[in-house]
Design brief:
Helix content is 42%, strand content 19%. The chain has 12 helices and 15 strands. The protein has 2 domains: 208 residues, 3-Layer(aba) Sandwich (Rossmann fold), CATH 3.40.50.450; 125 residues, Phosphofructokinase domain (Rossmann fold, 3-Layer(aba) Sandwich), CATH 3.40.50. α1 crosses α10. β1, α1 and β2 form a beta-alpha-beta unit. It has an 8-stranded mixed β-sheet, with helices on both faces. Strands 11-8-10-9-15 form a 5-stranded parallel β-sheet, sandwiched between helices. The protein has a two-stranded antiparallel ribbon with strand order 4-5. By secondary structure, it is of the alpha/beta class. Bound molecules: 6-O-phosphono-beta-D-fructofuranose. 6-O-phosphono-beta-D-fructofuranose binds next to loops. The site of 6-O-phosphono-beta-D-fructofuranose (F6P) has 11 residues, from loops.
Length: 360
């Protein structure tokens, strides 16, 4: 292998830059040139590339100058996109032609399940080998129990919950706090336990809206009763639960008007949780997944992903990393999101048992 391309696609995730940096250094050390694709699949279709390695005068390769800040930063310096053109065969054929023109022996795609679906299609339709690395704050990628960016996002959410709890306790308030995750409730589940929330609303557990409102009203009445004397009630709601968060907070406020000194507020954390310096865990995982992805490409594999603590796939030398076929990853992703995967069942059981968080 002489030359590879790397791209980041879909929603950015903290640690994407660390994965690109690791890929550059590992490849350079093995004498493999790396080019970066700017702007995800859009940049691939338009052939917008930049060199990420350079030849040294004394022989050998090194990262291009001025990139050593990369590993510690959030976002993606290569840029990203949601690319409707890539969903059609014409767009992918153009992307494939650009890869041949760029004379690369492989492509590394760093992104979430939509981006890895694209990687799977490209691998099946194009002669160039493609390997994926899971990166998405949503943690909704089958065959990788953790994705790059999740740990950082969770730490940000927990800090936000602590801050909201400070003000909530000062005023006897209940907060409905929404976290991102698209169709996945993972961020809500995990943060509800760590932030000791009183209830969590998940898309994996669809509930009747009126029934949910009744249960939340009951929770508020019990929590703020003289018997329990709580000063804060925290309800974490996943983005994928259809009721708008601020509306839910307003409806709940209407239900507890008779309670003196108790009020309800809503807050949507939104994109705030997608930025920020990646944590140790995300940087460490980024390096190890990049190594496995490069090894897989060097061994001639294609249409696969390097997965973290995967429940499927083939183990690598690294006990935490497996190589998972992208088609198995897609099947497992569907099961993860419709709640039939063992991983989802286990997560739901844990959330009920650990800390007694009430999953509504
Ligand atoms: O997939 C990551 C994610 O942040 C989801 O949690 C969220 O639903 C979506 O991206 C938001 O997308 P955009 O940044 O395009 O609005």
């Amino acid at each position: 292998m002489r030359r590879i391309a790397v791209l980041t696609s879909g929603g950015d995730a903290p640690g994407m830059n660390a994965a690109v940096w690791a890929m550059i250094k590992l490849a350079a050390a093995r004498g493999i040139h790396v080019i970066g694709v700017e702007g995800g699949y859009d940049g691939l279709i338009d052939g917008v590339f930049q060199d990420l390695t350079r030849a040294l005068d004394g022989g050998g390769l090194a990262p291009v100058a001025g990139l050593d800040w990369l590993a510690g930063t959030g976002g993606t310096f290569l840029g990203s996109s949601r690319c409707p053109r890539f969903r059609g065969p014409e767009g992918r054929a153009r992307a494939c032609a650009r890869l041949s023109d760029a004379d690369v022996d492989g492509l590394v795609v760093i992104g979430g399940n939509g981006s890895l679906t694209g990687a799977h299609l490209l691998a099946s339709e194009c002669g160039v080998p493609v390997v994926g690395i899971p990166a998405s704050i949503d943690n909704d990628i089958g065959g990788s129990t953790d994705a790059i960016g999740v740990d950082t996002a969770l730490n940000t959410i927990i800090e936000a919950c602590d801050r909201v709890s400070d003000t909530a306790r000062s005023h006897h308030r209940a907060f409905v706090l929404e976290v991102m995750g698209r169709r996945s409730g993972y961020l809500a589940m995990a943060s509800a336990v760590a932030a000791t929330a009183d209830a969590v609303l998940l898309p994996e557990q669809p509930r009747d809206a009126a029934e949910t409102l009744d249960q939340l009203e009951d929770l508020l009445r019990r929590s703020f009763s003289t018997d329990r004397s709580k000063r804060r009630v925290l309800i974490i709601k996943a983005e994928g639960v259809p009721t708008p968060t601020l509306l839910l907070a307003e409806q709940l406020q209407g239900r507890v008007e008779d309670l003196e000194n108790v009020s309800v507020r809503g807050i949507v954390l939104g994109h705030l949780i997608r930025g920020g310096h990646p944590t140790y865990h995300d940087r460490m995982m980024a390096g190890r997944l990049a190594l496995a992805a490069l090894d897989a490409l060097s061994a001639g594999s294609s249409d696969v992903m390097a997965g973290w603590q995967a429940n499927i796939g083939t183990r690598t030398q690294d006990p935490h990393v497996s190589i998972v076929s992208l088609s198995d990853m897609l099947t497992e992703t569907d099961r993860l999101l419709d709640g039939t995967s063992d991983v989802t069942t286990m997560r739901m059981r844990l959330i009920r048992e650990v800390q007694g968080v009430l999953a509504l």
